[in-house]
Amino acid sequence: MKRKRLILPFFLALLLLLSACGNDSGVIVTGGVNSADTVVPVRVESAYTTVMTDSLKLNGEIKAKEDVYVIPKASGTVQAVNCKVGDYVNKGDTLVVLDDSALEAQLVQAQAALAAARASYEDAVRNLERMEALYEEGAISLQTLESARTAVAASNPEAASASVDLAQLSISYTRVQAPISGLVAEVNTTVGSVAGTNYVARIVDMSTVTVTVEVGESEINQISVGQSVQVAVESAELNDLKGTVRTVSPVADYASKSYTVEIGIDNKDRLLKPGMYAEVKIVLGRREDVTCVPTVAVTHTADESYLFVVEDGHAVKKTVVTGAEADGVTEIVSGLLASETVVVKGQNKLTDGVAVSVEEE
User: Fold this and answer.
1) Composition of the chain by helix, strand, coil, percent to 5
2) Residue 318: beta bridge partners?
3) For 118-143, what is the mean pLDDT?
4) Cα–Cα distance for residue pair 118/109, rounded to 1 Å
5) Which residue in 19, 18, 13 sits closest to 32, CA to CA?
6) Domain locations in the chain?
């Protein structure tokens, strides 16, 4: 009997030792294997109230302020190309020169016709003056006088003058000029080729650029022309740009049911290139005294959102309704007081009512 009494305490001690060695879950066991005595170490932070900024983040493609394909108003053989890709040109600069020899010949003919028309007109006027004098003397009939007047009207040189103007205008079109100031993005012709209906150059004005975004019906009335917005362009490593709302479409797109908003961005250094993508942050409004917690404190499931608070050394599960979420902070619409302390580390090991020990950071 004495031997059996010695063996029983030995096995009990062995069981307790094995239980302690197998506990690697991060909880503290204070009284055997009873779960009621389990203490979970956690870290906590206090909920707080703050001013919450409601914002909308959207992406859009950057476009130049103006993007013009230059098409000649006249056709002809290209004699000179005065620009190359990357050049900055001013409005009115000559980009391409076309052969104008045929037009010059037409101008000479038109000028000769104008000179003849003026001479004929002057003769007709002098003849009319004589006819009027003779008519006053009764030497000619009214019909003869009217014929002289008709001759003056018929020999008016205005038509010939218009032909000269047209020939000169056609010659001016052989100097293909930049319609805007900006950078040459493309040159689409070479010396010796024939220019016609196709464009010869492309010019972009990048002094300012625009970003177009699509906004839903629930936010569009919170955006107005002139409103300042924040813009980030990751590819250009520019994350703190300022933009301004230029236009807000008054009607929704038929297919997408969204509203188009155009945002202008100053680009005097020309670091923003058309085709880059920008992220636009539009502030919709600000709200005072909003209860917030760190986002890590909140657990979302298909059925609910919840977090744990610490009360009298125990975890208490609270179902909450969340609102906006940004920069690691989540708004709590209901279910939590701003004075309460929430668990931000160790909450995945908690159940409602379990004992906790608060660790210091």
Assistant:
1) 30, 40, 30
2) 307
3) 87
4) 14
5) 19
6) 23-47+298-358, 55-64+205-284, 101-171
Instruction: Tell me, rounded to whole angstroms, the distance of Cα 4 from its chain centroid.
Output: 86
Please check whether residue 99 is in contact with residue 193, taking contact to mean a CB–CB distance below 8 angstroms: no
- Reference 343, options 294, 302, 271; nearest CA is 294
The dihedral region occupied by 96, where left means phi > 0, alpha psi between -120 and 50, and beta the remainder, is beta
Query: 23-47+298-358, which class in CATH?
Result: mainly beta
The CATH superfamily of 55-64+205-284 is Efflux pump adaptor protein, beta barrel domain (2.40.30.170)
Instruction: Among 6-10, 130-134, 193-197, 204-208, name the most confident range.
Output: 204-208
Task: For 10-43, give one letter per residue: b (16+ CB within 10 A) or e.
Answer: eeeeeeeeeeeeeeeeebeeeeeeeeeebebebe
pLDDT in tens, 166-205: 999 999 999 999 999 999 999 999 999 999 889 999 999 9
List alpha helices for 240-328, DSSP H: none
Place of tokens 């020169």: 97
Given a contact cutoff of 8 angstroms between Cβ atoms, the answer to whether 329 and 290 are in contact is: no
